[in-house]
Amino acid sequence: MLQSWTSAQVRAAEEPLLAAGVPLMQHAAFALAGVVARVLRERRGRVVGGQVVLLVGPGNNGGDALHAGAFLRRRGVDVVALALAPRVHDEGRAALLAAGGRVHEVTDAVDGAARAGRADVLVDGILGIGTRDGGLTGLAGALVAALAGGAVEGDARGDGSRGGVVGLGAHGADRPAVVAVDTPSGIGVDDGTVSGPVLPADVTVTFGGAKPGLLIPPAAHLVGRLEVIDLDLPLPDHHPAVVRLADRDAAALWPVPTRSAHKYSRGVVGVVAGARRYPGAAVLATSAAVLAGVGMVRYLGDVADLVVARRPEVVTGPGRVQAWVFGPGVSPDDAAQRRRIEHAFEGVLQRGEPAVVDAGALELLPPTVPTHVVLTPHAGELARLLTDRGHRLTRADVEREPLRWTRLAHEMTGATVLLKGHVTLVVGAGGAVYAQADAPPWLATAGAGDVLAGLMGAMLAGRADDVLDDPTLTAAVAAAAALVHGRAAHTANPDGPVTARGVALALPETIRTLLASA
Ligand SMILES: NC(=O)C1=CN([C@@H]2O[C@H](COP(=O)(O)OP(=O)(O)OC[C@H]3O[C@@H](n4cnc5c(N)ncnc54)[C@H](O)[C@@H]3O)[C@@H](O)[C@H]2O)[C@@H](O)CC1
Ligand SMILES: Nc1ncnc2c1ncn2[C@@H]1O[C@H](COP(=O)(O)OP(=O)(O)O)[C@@H](O)[C@H]1O
Ligand SMILES: [K+]
Predict the structure, then answer these.
(1) ipTM of the complex
(2) Are residues 344 and 394 both part of a single domain?
């Protein structure tokens, strides 16, 4: 499990250590230097003689970079610090100079970018947890925009071609590797927003614990490989801001049958999905539920013949269930499916059956529901859901601030909300947040969401009693389902195209491997 903490939580945790004189910056800088040395060795075969340029901002983030530069200088690395503020960390600057490094005061962004572009490794120490709203501006903003070129995200316009500077957006061995100090500078450290130019990192070395912005898009896309340096900070372990589950966490959440299990004790999942116009969604959602290993799958809808032909294990018609899947391939104007879903929602509200609400069923959601109801919108569907509730939003608005809007949807509906995408966000009871990044982009294919819904329904049916006993469990189960879904895409075809059906067929093997690894 990867946990992350907000800037305020990290500051509060470091305070007593700093007061006791623990040299946190020295520890952080030493570890940072070690990572930079490793990157140098990967790129050029050796550390000695490597060219490192430090981008140095006004605070302690720049101090980390300067001290790391001093360590590297002593290992025979050529280190130049580009000071991007009128005043940079005094001690760090003195340490670098004493070790034989150089400090260059930058006054022109294009010239600064040209110097930076010649490095083997560029160390981004402009801003860390001291970042205020608004991202990088002024000289640092212009320099980063020039360097980042085509890879700039957010509102800023980078021009990587100016003054002969090669934008880092271009791939190639000549381009410096970028190591970000604590966070890529300019990201929203606590919410993952990107409102100005940011240098995309190859490696981010973060201190004490991860920060939410490193896990949440769009900033999460700019982090590269994440290395967490443990500083023994007394962080509140039970209250991380954002969590990313690992395989062993998902395995621990999986409903593994006991020796005395029977099909009803393992759970029955009811699936209301598909229509004559969209029969495939019913097949995919029921297949995923069957292949994820539930006690029984019960299908309700107009394409039962087709579902049973493809999945003879499925039972059709009404009956008791432990959890529901509503909505894949359902249009809200389909009167029969609408009636079935509205009727089933009564069970959800009266008997407390957990439910996955996807696609067309999102429009049939009662005003408020318990947290054991999981909504699974993509960004466009979340925009529509919130627009219907008085917040005019587009898909692009949601993509710019996914955490904010997922949180709002949870607060307004009471449901656990899972926002699908390259990073899948889940917000559940007590505001708990999960950010899973387990899927290859190949998974962005029609029907993949139907498979996720079926798979999650199976998990919820298997853990229905636990979910009702512990309201915080639903979000964890939803995050684990996203993890399994992403892993199944890798199992189906590592590094290549997948089909939704292929992902469903890969579930048994994926789950077996996951459980064996725990
Ligand atoms: N958290 C920890 O345990 C440790 C933190 N350390 C480092 O200290 C950093 C935090 O240092 P600071 O608190 O000095 O903060 P930063 O170095 O992140 O930045 C603060 C400075 O940047 C300015 N600034 C903030 N937002 C700006 C913006 N949008 N545009 C222009 N200027 C802006 C502020 O006025 C202030 O001068 C961490 O990110 C980390 O790198 C390490 O040295 C040691 C351990
Ligand atoms: N860029 C991406 N990288 C990885 N996974 C993605 C990406 N985009 C979408 N996905 C995943 O693919 C699935 C698509 O679901 P959805 O949009 O509901 O499609 P459909 O309705 O056709 O089934 C979701 O699980 C989502 O998280
Ligand atoms: K930084």
Answers:
(1) 0.93
(2) yes
Prior bond to 255 cis, omega within 30?
no
As averages over each run of 10 residues, the pLDDT of the chain (518 residues) reads 97 95 97 98 97 98 98 98 97 98 96 95 98 91 86 34 42 82 98 96 98 98 97 91 97 94 92 94 98 97 96 94 97 92 92 95 96 98 98 98 98 98 97 96 97 98 95 97 98 96 98 94
Q: Which atom of ligand 2 is nearest to the CA of 281?
A: 23
Task: Determine the structural domain holding residue 473 and report its residue range.
Answer: 247-517
Ion ligand 3: residues, Cβ under 5 Å: 61, 124, 128, 181, 185
Do 189 and 300 lie in one domain? The reply is no
169 is in an annotated binding site: no
Ligand 1 site residues (CB inside 6 A) read 10, 14, 24-25, 28, 57-64, 127-132, 134-137, 181-182, 207-208, 231, 233
Residues 215 and 276 in one domain: no
Same domain, 174 and 266: no
Q: Which helix (H) or strand (E) holds 268?
A: strand 268-272
* Ligand 3 center–CA 199 separation, angstroms: 9
Note the pTM of the prediction, 2 decimals: 0.94
Domain tally, the chain: 2
User: Of 175, 205, 238, which one is at a domain's C-terminal end?
Assistant: 238
Q: Are residues 446 and 380 in the same domain?
A: yes
List CB contacts of 470: < 8 A, sequence separation 6 or more.
none
Pocket of ligand 2 (CB under 6 A): 359, 378, 420-422, 424, 439, 441, 443-444, 446-450, 452, 485
CATH number of the domain bearing residue 294: 3.40.1190.20
Is 5 strand, coil or helix?
coil
Compute the distance between CA of residue 135 and CA of residue 239 in angstroms, rounded to an integer: 27
Q: What is the pLDDT of residue 202?
A: 97
185: number of CA atoms within 13 Å, CB side?
Answer: 31
Residue 446 phi/psi, 5-degree rounding, is -55, 135
Give me 397's structure tokens.
């608005």
Task: Please tell me whether residues 36 and 152 are part of one structural domain.
Answer: yes
Do residues 266 and 374 share a domain? yes
